[in-house]
Amino acid sequence: MYSEKVMDHFQHPRNMGEIENASGVGTVGNAKCGDIMRIYLDIDEDTKIIKDCKFKTFGCGAAVATSSMATELVIGKTIYEAMEVTNKAVMEALDGLPPVKIHCSLLAEESIHAALWDYCQKHNIEIPGLKEPKKDVHDGEEEQAE
Amino acid sequence: MSKPFIYMDNAATTKVAPQVLDAMMPYFSEIYANGSSVYQFGQTAKEAIENARAQAAALIGAKPEEIYFTGGGSESDNWAIKNAAEVYGNKGKHIITSNIEHHAVLHTCQYLEKHGFEVTYLPVDSEGRITPEQLEAAIRPDTILVSIMTANNEIGTIEPIKELGRVAHEHGVLFHTDAVQAYGHIPINVDEMNIDMLSSSGHKINGPKGIGIMYARKTVKLAPFIHGGAQERGKRAGTLNTPGIVGFGAAAQLAGEKMEERKKVLDALREHLIERVLNEIPYSRLNGARYDRLPNNAHFCFRFIEGESMLIMLDMNGVCGSSGSACTSGSLDPSHVLLAIGLPHEIAHGSLRLTLSEDITMEQIDYTVDKLKEIVARLREMSPLYEDFVKNGEKK
Questions:
Q1: Residue B182 CA to chain centroid, in angstroms?
Q2: B178: closest CA among B197, B162, B165?
Q3: Which of A75, A108, B4, B95 has the most crowded CB, counting CB atoms within 10 A?
Q4: Which H/E stretch holds residue B365?
Q5: Do B349 and A18 touch (CB under 8 A)?
């Protein structure tokens, strides 16, 4: 059901882990739907180049693979160029995803955006096209509490 | 070292037993006659079919003429429930079932709701059980059918069918049970357990796929389900699937003969599996009843991780299991059964069902638990939920 590339990134995730004192951190998704992604960015203050990126993901094989691929795609890019890492770009880089898993690639894009947003907020920077991330990480739990 | 092959998904389907396959083989190319034909060749096929009907009936203390062969468990569920609506709908429009039934029952009930029927979905307790008192309270003067599964396909909990059937009968209501996971695995007697209709399937008991039975007590009025020829006393038309039927009969007989011995083997394997998992993997839980469960079923949740990832990693290690996680079903919601027993979504997503057979060895159980420990640890290392838990402890 998954491409070889998806399986490769699931079995050997790239850049899995945390970055201490990260320049930006973003968490998206919710436990209710079964996917949560967290992205850590290490950004060079002067060049605005993403020197390092790490992820942590709770989710299915596609969720792990898309976050792994997203980290690979943004490393070495400036924070402005990182906006090119869309869900489509992640999917193409993975040789496609089953239709029911497309939301995983959207989540990967959103998690990068959320981490960039966190960085921009701290440094008062604006990236064209970057919007405030949806705060739905805890929606699931809130709904259950009702 | 080559990868092992450890099949622990026997609730999904089972291997056709060699004896069953042997019994079926002559009915493909040798005795291929249509069982409805008059000549001796046809009558030979018919004899084999009637022998299988008797074997299927004997396993549940039914009469052969109360067994109808169908295309499988889902068809039997559909037939039993839709028949009650069609034939008894003039007496009332109310049906009672549970909220942990198989989709073959739930979706059939939802279909009937669109056609003027009212359905009560009884909630279950934390182990997945319905009580006779609950059923008693739900029965109304216009209730025409109660349908409660004998044992749950995901968490393995066995329902108090005898008592539930008694309550239904005290109110003159028909009682159907989806016994797809229970038939041939635990003792069932339709008279003692007050069952009017029962569904089961061949491939869950080392028989072939695409064949099932619907038991209907003689007193139950049946309308034809498939219109056409006079097969199955005019109720279910279509040329009889002789090899499948013979296979079903052979599998039913084998299951009956081996039931006790098999239970002993499975109890020991399952207990060892459950003990080791609960003792050695932190933040794990067993779902369903601790002891009163299907002999082959172990069902766990592991916190902070997601089921599909676990399944893929188990598969990479040669272990076939299943999960009620959303990602394996193609929807965003985890299993309705796990939500029904009160698990939050977050925990329900991390579920794993391992259903054993007597072919499994203790060594294979140990290997599976060893691998599972590594896999759960690996996925937790990747999980932001686990990271938060380690840093902040339990959320208030």
A1: 6
A2: B197
A3: A108
A4: helix B362-382
A5: no
Q: pLDDT under 50 in chain A at which residues? A: 139-146
Q: Which distant-in-sequence residues (6+ apart) come within 8 Å of B82 by Cβ?
A: B108, B112, B225
Confidence of residue B333 (pLDDT cuts 50, 70, 90): confident
CB B109 within 8 A of CB B95: yes
Q: How many CB atoms lie within 10 A of CB A123?
A: 13
Question: What ipTM does the predicted assembly reach?
Answer: 0.90
Rounded to whole angstroms, the Cα distance separating B72 from B60 reads: 17
For chains A and B, count residue pairs whose Cβ atoms are closer than 8 Å.
76
Which chain B residues are closer than 8 Å to A63 by Cβ? Answer: 306, 309
Is A104 a catalytic site residue?
yes
A50 in Cβ contact with A75 (< 8 Å): yes
Of A32, A57, A62, the CB nearest to B345: A32
In angstroms, the CA B280 to CA B85 distance is 50
Which one-letter amino acid corresponds to residue B209? Answer: K
- Name the nearest CA neighbour of B90 among B57, B52, B116, B65: B116
Two structure tokens written together for B195: 């069952």
- For residue A137, give the chain B residue with the closest CA: B385
**pLDDT over 70 for what percent of chain B?**
97
Exposed / middle / buried, residue B28 (Cβ in 10 Å: 0-12, 13-18, 19+): exposed
